[in-house]
Target: Short-chain dehydrogenase/reductase
Amino acid sequence: MTYNLDGKVAFVTGGGRGQGRSHAIAFARAGAKVAFCDFTGSFDHTAYAINRPGDIAETEKLVNAAGGECLAIEADVRSLPEMQRAVGEIVERWGRLDIAVANAGIDSYTPVQAMAAQQWQDTIDVNLTGVFNTIRAASPQMIEQRGGSIVGISSSVGKVGTANNPAYIASKWGVIGLVKAAAADLGPHFVRVNAVCPGYISTEMIDNGTLPPLFFPDNPDATEDDVTAYVNWAVHTIPAGRLDSEEVSNAVLFLSSDQSRYISGSTIDVNAGWSARFTA
Ligand SMILES: NC(=O)c1ccc[n+]([C@@H]2O[C@H](COP(=O)([O-])OP(=O)(O)OC[C@H]3O[C@@H](n4cnc5c(N)ncnc54)[C@H](O)[C@@H]3O)[C@@H](O)[C@H]2O)c1
Model:
């Protein structure tokens, strides 16, 4: 299906790389003007660099190449004033804001009994408070326009529990609750709020060597391919391996388009059938 977002303005948080970059390019291809934010800080508990020099410029280049007008903003989703500044810049540039994708996220693995308070707090601050800040900053403009679509990026582990990941999982369950609460508040203003729940997606967040020892603690020779084989067999039900970010962008695009105008407070799972293992 193709979507026509001509005349719309979209904002993606964490658009410097990975899935956020893919969403930004998809919006540009669909005709939207695209703003994205990212930040250049780091956390001592993530096994991967949060952002690399050049990431932001590369997304900007790719969005422009996809035919879109692009506004790249450095802003940290943990800060409400920074998110309000970002929305202010977007509205100043294009006069409106129709779509906001709260995508920025971090992940690091520690069992609950050993998790440092700061690791817990950082993860909640980015993954959950960051989504709140995005909704809080974007919604007044959308209310004024009497319409808009906000998509929060949760996860398939926003619907189940797995080992070694309590802060991330709590944050992603929280995103679903927040999206439903915000959909109730914003529905009367024709502003929709939904979540997308990806499964294993091939980005730096998971393709960084962390997973083999977690999945196979007794096998020091375990590889990323072993993890993917396990995911094919025991997690996803369609053996497609780790999915490309574009698969998630397809769902984000649908929820951002008028084709979903009466869908709000919902979640869409993009997880090669992992949903088959959920209760509902
Ligand atoms: N990769 C997966 O398998 C997977 C699965 C389910 C959900 N997700 C979620 O998808 C979203 C995108 O992740 P990804 O896979 O593209 O990972 P990624 O690490 O490649 O991208 C995350 C982006 O968010 C940015 N970011 C982090 N903290 C930020 C902050 N405080 N302010 C602004 N930007 C910040 C990073 O710089 C990076 O550009 C995340 O919310 C993640 O939790 C990922």
Q: What stands out?
A: Residues 72 and 225 are 35 Å apart (CA to CA). The chain has one domain: 9-201+244-274. Residues 13-14, 16-20, 37-39, 50-51, 76-78, 103-107, 126, 130, 153, 155, 198, 200-201, 203-206 surround nicotinamide-adenine-dinucleotide (CB under 6 Å).
